[in-house]
Amino acid sequence: MLRAGVPPDTTPMALRTLVARFTEHVPDVLLELHELTTASQLAKLRAEELDAGLVRHPCDTVGLESSEVVHRRLGVVLPADHRAAGQDVVRLRTLDGSALVIFPREMAPQLYDHMLEACRDNGFLPSAIRHARNPHFVHGLVMSGLGAHLNEAPYDDLPAGLVWRPIDEPRLTWSTSAVWPPVQGGEVIGAFAEAALAGLRSVGHA
Fold first, then answer.
1. What integer pLDDT is reported at residue 190 of this predicted model?
2. I want to staple 195 with a disulfide (CB 3.0 to 4.6 A). Which of 22, 119, 170, 201 is the partner?
3. Are 204 and 105 in contact (CB under 8 A)?
């Protein structure tokens, strides 16, 4: 059995591809997936409660092995009537004064700080920060005019009244890799890493 963590917002298509590829390569190994934040995965990997994980960077992977990092540019989810919604590429500075809806810091502290720093460097100083992790809650807050939300292009249609637009800051990405303790290694970990990267790329990662 391989105990592996994946981010809570991993898409259904990415999970399907991950499981199918893993099973194809090592059919005799049971894959036990756990929905965990980056911070929780790293803690459990170091406590030997997980065998592998799929984490977002930047994060502290000292002492762990890592696969190739796969990057996905972020954009912004806005109400359709927001002043920036008509832009083909949203300049972050045009969001200045809007609130920001973002995942709680404890989920991935270094990534959280990196995202706020990139916003600040581009002239986007949120009037308020609202924390949400469930997509329905996130979309409800944005639809209610309570903030803009940075995320990758949606794999499915957004609710009516919301739009997604690319942004002008290449530093804002989901940068994701498989990680594992050095003592693991071997064919099974290799199969997980390959399957995880295939899953990420199945939804447009590059």
1. 95
2. 22
3. no
